[in-house]
Amino acid sequence: xxxxxxxxxxxxxxxxxxxxxxxxxxxxxxxxxxxxxxxxxxxxxxxxxxxxxxxxxxxxxxxxxxxxxxxxxxxxxxxxxxxxxxxxxxxxxxxxxxxxxxxxxxxxxxxxxxxxxxxxxxxxxxxxxxxxxxxxxxxxxxxxxxxxxxxxxxxxxxxxxxxxxxxxxxxxxxxxxxxxxxxxxxxxxxxxxxxxxxxxxxxxxxxxxxxxxxxxxxxxxxxxxxxxxxxxxxxxxxxxxxxxxxxxxxxxxxxxxxxxxxxxxxxxxxxxxxxxxxxxxxxxxxxxxxxxxxxxxxxxxxxxxxxxxxxxxxxxxxxxxxxxxxxx
Length: 328
What we know:
Blueprint: E1 7-10, H1 16-24, E2 54-57, H2 78-84, E3 90-93, E4 96-99, E5 108-110, E6 115-117, E7 127-130, E8 133-137, E9 141-149, E10 154-156, E11 159-161, E12 167-172, E13 178-180, E14 183-185, E15 190-194, E16 201-203, E17 206-208, E18 213-217, E19 224-226, E20 229-231, E21 235-239, E22 246-248, E23 251-253, E24 257-261, E25 268-270, E26 273-275, E27 282-286, E28 302-304, E29 311-316, E30 320-323
Parallel strand pairs: 2-3, 3-6, 4-7, 5-9, 6-10, 7-11, 9-12, 10-13, 11-14, 12-15, 13-16, 14-17, 15-18, 16-19, 17-20, 18-21, 19-22, 20-23, 21-24, 22-25, 23-26, 24-27, 26-28, 27-29
Antiparallel strand pairs: 1-30, 8-9
């Protein structure tokens, strides 16, 4: 059954066990259980950066042994540039593929305020970082990850793929990294995972054909997820534990399910387009309490053409207000 009122309160009391089985028994184990728990922002133009703080990398013509990272003698690997980079440095990536075959050592660790920039004009279509390596997360133990972002690091204008088993494209568990104008595609697990107390800004990215989720948000993290596209993935956005992300003006379509909200999470959703997902547009489970809008601050989310329900709250254990949204 679909909801059709502009202002609706959803309160359904089916047991969590039975609905969880229904939701997740279709042969794809892509809920947050996949992560077994153990316990300034604009892209800088070339003219605005002092050349002293810029390091250039080119996987085709670069040289890590004899180059100095200048535009005329670039490094071959991002790995080498990260070793040399000081605070506030910008690492400029030429078009090409950056992988273990070209000398990269994964995971790449973006520290402090280092900025790695490819081509933001096309979300890094021709600047591909491909690979992953073992990283010991303080929250989840060993994970296979392409890039770990810490501090106020920035990643912009690249395509990131981790084809390794249960591979994550990017992992964020601390501070305030900025992730914008990238493509996260083809990772076997998630495009991005945010956990711990991290508060990153994740803007204007394309998440496409990742094996499990576009983004998983967990811990007590509070990311701002804004103006991204999530397509052809298991769950577009998966929110768990006590996370409280701001999810604003995203386009979430053609996934198995658009958004899954679990445990005691409290996300805020405003002005998102959640349409044409194979099963449900949005699923609420357990004690999760999404803010989908109220009389003083309408949600403005659009739900339509989702295969089963626009909003599936059968496993929610409390009332959910959804004021000011549109439904099929």
